[in-house]
């Protein structure tokens, strides 16, 4: 590994823009780090805050533990299960909780020190008991202790970041992105990561500019350095000199002006230059994003991810009421447009520690596979959705994720029918017209799409996964990010097959992967015959602006040319030509408006 010897001004690092944006701020190197206890006493005024932090850590670690326990029960490995069971019990032991809180109060020490001391009492007790069974469990106890301490320290570190902070870190988890965003950081820079990893998707949803794949950012930067994150140039500038700083201040102002211009398109219809209507819908991950549906004039919700509910719930078996509330919230959007609710799609990179348990998590226990193994989980989610759908008849579309065989889909459909029947028997209103669709994200579904199209009410193409599974390129691995090409002709061919199957069976076909939010790709998709695009609401104006400047025939020609490409070079050439054309059309439009 190359040693970084000096901290030169104007050091430039290249990466990939997971979330576009241009910001200047102060760098904070963030690392999950090792256990290091701070024994310093607390000011009396901070005691309640420290107890809250401990309770938050208990909830967060509880969530991880429950996920792991559920995961292990699917593995049928009794050793792992019993270890996790012990840890789970320790974590939920009311005596442990009470003694940590008592220590914080009485001794006025930090949560991390109180946890350490409280656990030490248990450890000493077990050691002196001489019971070999209990002694073998000591390492499990220490593991829970360390998880809790790490979690409180993480919360401390994260809550310390100010509003001008740009986080620099090796890698980032979806949960950390949420914590950073809620603390109002300006941006995130990572050594590694993938463009369509769930951490990137969440950063996008929360509007936090993020550059990934810089390889050495954590070693080249120091906490406190001024840093520029320039997503448009896929670049990070550490310690800019005076001249560069001035230049970028102007550049940031210019971008803010452009953003304002873009906002003008918000109230205009989403149609091509020749008047073909396109439905631009919203991808929603969090309750607080729902306001953005109306703000950016999305035509309904094209993808309501329910996975993020887990992040706050503390358990994989989510509380039904909580799920109902989440879905009910989504129906609060202004018009009566439809809402596509996707069933839980955890696994892959979406549950913190679980990925370490499987050799190939993206090919493993994920999405519908978990739902069919955990029927109670599936049934509780279906009941929540069907109850809410019953209050808004005709508006709900239900989407099944990570399907790879027709049997899985039929099984879920059967469960939905059972749930509706059960509710009807209890006189709970249901939506008889609820539409059930499948995510087209595994090539086996795309290949058998004519068969699937006969069983579903709509198709939704998940290009993030369809690309990774078709090209065998991990969506979260920046070592191979240049191979991750959602517009590769093989992916486009599968999309075109889905469009044709949709036409034959007269069912709608939507795209809800990140590809839909790329103005160039959106035109290719429309040219292929996709009339529903769903994306992070913030990105709708950019796509709408582009759509309004081209005719449908131009888009069709573009799509035909893309399908004829043999190499990635040919694809890049078409894209460059389009970018040139688009920039000319945009400046003509600007002149017309002036
Ligand atoms: C996709 O795979 O394109 C998709 C929309 O689902 P997710 O990103 O949640 O896997
Ligand atoms: Mg997917």
Radius of gyration: 25 Å
Shape: globular
Within the largest sheet, what's the order of strands?
Answer: 1-8-7-3-4-5-6-2
Strand content: 5-15%
Q: Please report the number of helical segments.
A: 24
Task: Let me know the average pLDDT.
Answer: 88
Listed once per kind, the bound small molecules are: phosphoenolpyruvate, magnesium ion
- Share of residues in helices: 40-55%
**By helix and strand content, what is the structural category?**
alpha/beta
Task: Give the uncertain stretches in residue-range form.
Answer: none
Sheet of most strands:
8 strands, mixed
Span between termini: 54 Å
- Count of individual beta strands: 16
Key traits:
binds magnesium ion, eight-stranded parallel barrel, 594 residues, binds phosphoenolpyruvate, 24 helices, alpha/beta, eight-stranded mixed sheet
Concise summary:
The protein has helices at residues 47-75, 78-91, 94-107, 111-129, 132-135, 138-160, 174-182, 198-205, 217-220, 242-263, 291-295, 309-313, 320-330, 368-373, 375-391, 406-425, 443-447, 449-452, 463-471, 489-505, 519-528, 540-547, 552-564, 568-593; strands spanning 11-14, 16-19, 22-30, 165-169, 187-190, 210-212, 226-230, 235-238, 279-284, 301-305, 339-342, 396-400, 435-440, 458-461, 509-511, 532-535. It has 24 helices and 16 strands.
3D structure, described in words:
There is one protein chain. Helix 1 (47-75) runs antiparallel to helix 2 (78-91), helix 1 (47-75) packs antiparallel against helix 3 (94-107) and helix 7 (174-182) runs parallel beside helix 8 (198-205). The protein is built from 24 helices and 16 strands. Helix content is 51%, strand content 13%. The protein starts with 10 loop residues before the first strand and ends with a helix. With 594 residues, the protein is α/β, with parallel strands linked by helices. The mean pLDDT is 88. It has helices at 47-75, 78-91, 94-107, 111-129, 132-135, 138-160, 174-182, 198-205, 217-220, 242-263, 291-295, 309-313, 320-330, 368-373, 375-391, 406-425, 443-447, 449-452, 463-471, 489-505, 519-528, 540-547, 552-564, 568-593; strands spanning 11-14, 16-19, 22-30, 165-169, 187-190, 210-212, 226-230, 235-238, 279-284, 301-305, 339-342, 396-400, 435-440, 458-461, 509-511, 532-535. It has an 8-stranded mixed beta sheet with strand order 1-8-7-3-4-5-6-2. An 8-stranded parallel barrel has the order 9-10-11-12-13-14-15-16. The relative contact order is 0.10. Magnesium ion binds next to helix 19. The site of magnesium ion has 4 residues, from helix 19.
